[in-house]
Amino acid sequence: MTTTSPPVPVDGGAWQLVRAELRRRTSLKASLAVVVLFALMTVAAPLIGSLGGWSPEEFDKSAVDPYLGGLPIGPLGGVSAEHWLGVEPITGRDLFARVVHGAQVSLLIAFAATAIVVVAGVAAGIAAGYFGGRTDTVLSRLMDLTMSFPSLIFMIAMMSVARDVNRTLLMILVIGLFGWPGVARVVRGQTLSLKHREYVDAARVGGSGPRRILARADRPGVAGPVIAYTTLMVPGMIATEAALSYLGVGVRPPTPSWGQMIAESVAYYDTDPMYFLVPSLCLFLTVLAFTLLGDALRDLLDPRGGRT
Questions:
Q1: In the structure, how many helices (H) and strands (E) does the chain have?
Q2: Tell me, what's the pLDDT at 307?
Q3: What are phi and psi of 56, to 5 degrees?
Q4: CA dist 21 to 29, 32, 229, Å?
Q5: SS3 of 72, please?
Q6: Are 250 and 159 in contact (CB under 8 A)?
Q7: Peptide bond into 254 cis (omega under 30)
Q8: Whole-structure pTM value
């Protein structure tokens, strides 16, 4: 019979396991390097984008051929010493600058939406699992209602009707609105399993209130699964933002995002494949890196959620 071990508390020993796994698995090192690279692009996009000498909205008409429908001049979509990843057809905007700034927009939305999901989900899950009774009933029914709602249709509708608003902020709020029940269910189940452990009962008998018990006793046991599933959640948020932008209801031009760039490049995939490949490859590498990293963290910090 297969047995599973409890989640590993997030302490020095757990992080030693993570570091040992990182040293052992080359794929994890590569994944972490990709994650760090794109995180740096998110934080320092203006600085990194300026290394190529072009801004993301700057046109370079000399880089495209007006007699060939505005196709880039030169091989691989206009790749040259001046334009490191080539240029956009017709406009001649530098792809390197747009990809870097697109990373800032796409990952900012993904990270901020994930933060909202984690904070709301952890708060609701701990409240439902620890207090139980009517609190658990109300929050559980709210989770069921939110999860049963056609979230993609609602997102498309909201983004379509919203006009004079900050669309980046609106996307963060809309995406975060529908993601919290999954985290809340995981945290609720973990809190229920920890609620009647001996050390929790001892803290309760010793006169500790709910706030102290949740902070000192329950938090270490909940943190491991939350960290693991948060890392796995980020790729889904990135893909959601890309899908909404691809459908034309996400970030609007001239602000670049990976999904928007992929949508615009579809018309040129046969005549200028680099225009399609560059943002698609960035999206693929980011999602793959976060998925591999999150899968490894889940196996280490939450063995019951991984393979048995």
A1: 13, 2
A2: 46
A3: -70, -20
A4: 9, 12, 18
A5: strand
A6: yes
A7: yes
A8: 0.81
The owner of tokens 């006793």 is 217
Burial of residue 30, with CB atoms counted within 10 A of its CB: 0-12 exposed, 13-18 middle, 19 or more buried = middle
Entry field: residues in the chain: 308
CB 88 within 8 A of CB 95: yes
Paired tokens of 143: 């989770």
Quickly tell me which residue has 């990270």 as its tokens. Answer: 111
Note the pLDDT of residue 17: 67
pLDDT-derived band at 97 (thresholds 50, 70, 90) equals: very high
Please state, in angstroms and rounded to a whole number, the distance separating the CA atoms of residues 53 and 282.
21
Instruction: Kindly list the distances between the CA atom of residue 28 and the CA atoms of 18, 32, 168, 294, 304, in Å, as whole numbers in the listed order.
Output: 10, 6, 31, 10, 21
d(CA 274, CA 283): 14
Output the CA–CA distances (angstroms, integers) from residue 163 to 20, 130, 196, 249, 252, in the order listed. 50, 42, 51, 10, 10
| Per-residue pLDDT tens over the stretch 129-143 | 888 889 999 999 999
Q: Judge whether residue 37 has pLDDT over 70.
A: yes
Non-local (6+) Cβ contacts of 223 within 8 A are: 9, 10
Q: CA distances (Å), 27 to each of 31, 229, 278, in order?
A: 6, 19, 22
Residue 165's identity, in one-letter code, is: V
pLDDT in tens, 191-241: 887 777 666 666 666 666 666 666 655 566 677 778 878 888 888 888 888
pLDDT score of 204:
65
Question: Coil, strand, or helix at residue 87?
Answer: strand
Residues 6+ apart with CB under 8 A from 51: none
Helix (H, G, I), strand (E, B) or coil at 269: coil
Predicted pLDDT of residue 155: 81
Q: What H or E segment, with its residue span, contains residue 188?
A: helix 180-195
